[in-house]
Input
Amino acid sequence: MNIIILSKGPGNYSTKRLKEVALARGHNVRVINYNKCYMTIEKDNPVVYYKGEPLTDVDAIIPRIAQSFTKYGSSVVRQFEMQGVFTTSSSIAINRSRDKLRSYQLLAKYGVGVPKTVFARETSEFDEVIELAGGTPLIIKVARGTHGNGVVLAETKKAAQAVMQAFYVEGVNFLVQEFVKESAGMDIRALVVGGKVVASVKRQSLDDDFRSNTHQGGEGVPVKITDEERKTAQKAAKAMGLPICGVDMMRSDRGPLVLEVNSSASLKTPETITGRDVAGKIIDYVEQNARGKRRRDRVGA
Ligand SMILES: Nc1ncnc2c1ncn2[C@@H]1O[C@H](COP(=O)(O)OP(=O)(O)O)[C@@H](O)[C@H]1O
Ligand SMILES: [Mg+2]
Output
């Protein structure tokens, strides 16, 4: 098969692993920087170009779109979709997963546990927003993923108000969320491939930070997840229309609560820590599905 990995980091662990596995299986694989792709749009002729060459005869793409290039990257994915090329994540699902509010709305509707979340714009209703989120301490987070940088724990009402005010003034969309204190500093990342969990790691912050992101110094360790956690991760993947994704969950007193679903989850920690061949599972998925009928997105939001 002719497979393109859309990635701007050829030296990135996940990109390298996917390429290595696909090559070993006898596929033609290219790593292409989606930021350097360009496209022509005209009647019945969708083309993607790269360095002067039209990318034709592509059987499958594996998008690894960075958060900061979501718009351009997902447009390139969409252009391949217009040609009928199989993709491991649809452009719609990538965009959906990059919007935390949209994700929480969908997850909640599908019956997936999420931390209670409030979204509001009215500057005058701070008190009510705080009350609806269960009072302080509470979490205020930017509506897009930030590797933990845009997530604030406000201990007091005054602090919560000040943070909200600052975000409003700057025109930043944010969500206010109950602070799940029993899970502070710890979360679980379950890697889903083909709708099934194939590896899970627990991420624990090394200092007293409430954020467990590895970008914030969190450390990953293997974890055996419960049946309920496995079902939750799989349900979240389905709700988001992402057969391949990383589902982040917190362990709360009322069961697993999903924090986010990542459409380009890193394979590094899950593979190196659990020893599982996640890249192999992804290539299996491509081999089993790329030739079949294109599945339409049926999520509806
Ligand atoms: N409601 C919450 N209660 C407790 N901890 C939280 C909550 N929301 C986020 N966290 C912590 O902060 C980290 C980052 O939050 P997340 O929503 O995943 O943002 P990002 O997209 O920036 O990673 C999480 O991994 C978790 O450890
Ligand atoms: Mg996160």
Remarks:
- Residues 213, 248, 259-260 surround magnesium ion (ligand 2) (CB under 6 Å).
- Residues 100 and 143 are 5 Å apart (CA to CA).
